[in-house]
Amino acid sequence: MEESISGFKIRGDWGDVVEHGERITQALREHSVDDPGRGGEAHLASAFEEWDEWRPKAHETLEADVSEKTADQASVEEGKGEKAGKGPDEDIKTAGEKLSESYEQLEEDDPDAAVDNWKESIDYVARAADSAGRKALRRVEDTVYQNVMTQLAPYYFDNELVSANIQQSTRNGDAGEQFVFEVNVNDDELKEKVSDRLAEYDDEIDRWHVEVEKDTDAAEAIEGAEPPPEPEPEDNSRSTTN
Question: What are the boundaries of each domain within the chain?
Answer without folding.
Answer: 2-73+161-240, 80-134
